[in-house]
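Q: My labmate handed me this sequence with no annotations at all. I'd like to see what the chain might look like in three dimensions before we decide whether it's worth expressing. Could you predict it?
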Amino acid sequence: MHLDQTDMKLLGFLQGDSKQTNKELSIKLNLSVTAVYERIKKLEREGVISGYVALVDKAVVNKDFVAFCHIKLVKHSQEYVVKFEQEVANLMEVVECYHISGDYDYLLKVLVSDMEAFREFMVNKLTSINHIGSTHSMFVINEVKHTTAINI
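A: Here is what I predict for the chain of 152 residues:
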C-alpha cells in the first residue's frame, strides 16, 4: 500500500493521541470529516493501523520492575523454536519477545512487581519451558526513553 503525505501526517497525529475526533483531525489536515474517516478506515483495512490501546503507567499497576532476558535454545530445530514461541507467548509477564541474531536466540522484555516476583517468574515459569539451554538477565535501572510511536 502506498502512503501519501496526508496518510503519514494522519498516522503521526493518531500515534500522538488516537482519541482525537475525526473533526479535530480534519481541521489539522485541512480535510473533510468524511475524508478523514475514509482514510482511517482504509488504513485499518490495509493493516497499517492494527489496533488502539491505552498506555498504562507501570508503577501505578505495580509492574515497574523491568527485566530483559536473553534466551539460548539447546537446539535450533523447527520443533524447538515453535514450541518455545508458543509457550513464551502464554507468559503474562512477557510483554515483548523477539527472535534475534547473535549469541542468543531470543530477547524477552519482562514486567513484574519486584525482584522476588522476577525470581518466581524465572524459577516457576520461564525455566520450566523445555529446550532452553541458558538465560542471561539484565534489569532496568532507569528508563531513559520509551515510546510506542514510529517516527514517520
